TrEMBL record:
It comes from the Bacteria. The chain crosses the membrane at residues 6-25, 117-138. This is DUF3592 domain-containing protein. The keyword Transmembrane applies. Keywords: Membrane, Transmembrane, Transmembrane helix. It comes from Reticulibacter mediterranei.
Length: 140
């Protein structure tokens, strides 16, 4: 039973670590692409959603080529308190895929940008250290 739980734990850590890394790398690539190729636009904050133990989200809309797009972005508590519903905000979006957009200018705030990569590296690092821990445990 202990071996089965250990294998399950290793599988969960491996799957989580890889998943976090994939998400983090994808988000980073989108940010780089928006910074390089993004078109500036003006949007409107339509909703604020505060979460209990982590930063919240703001939802915004903007128009491009006779179509309205809606986006959401995670923001810090401090930043959330400065953003109001109905407020005009600067943003950048990809002209090839306008649904990929981020707030820019003074409203740019990305408190969790590095977190998926951090947790992915942490889980995979712990997983790599596991054989050393096992050897030390059986040695004593």
């Amino acid at each position: 039973m202990t071996i089965l739980l250990s294998i399950l734990g290793v599988g969960v850590m491996l799957f989580s670590g890889i998943g976090f890394l994939v998400i983090g790398i994808r988000e980073h690539r989108q940010r780089v692409l928006i910074a390089r190729e993004g078109i500036p636009a003006t949007g409107t904050i339509i909703e604020r959603r505060v979460l209990s133990r982590e930063p919240g989200f703001v939802f915004y809309t903007f128009d491009y080529k006779d179509r309205t797009y809606t986006g959401k972005q995670r923001v810090s508590y401090e930043h959330m308190n400065r953003i109001n519903i109905g407020e005009q905000v600067s943003l950048r979006f990809l002209p090839s895929n306008p649904s990929i957009a981020l707030l820019s200018g003074e409203r740019e705030d990305n408190p969790w940008t590095c977190m998926p990569i951090f947790f992915g590296c942490l889980f995979l690092g712990l997983l790599l250290a596991l054989p050393v821990w096992i050897l030390l445990a059986f040695r004593s």
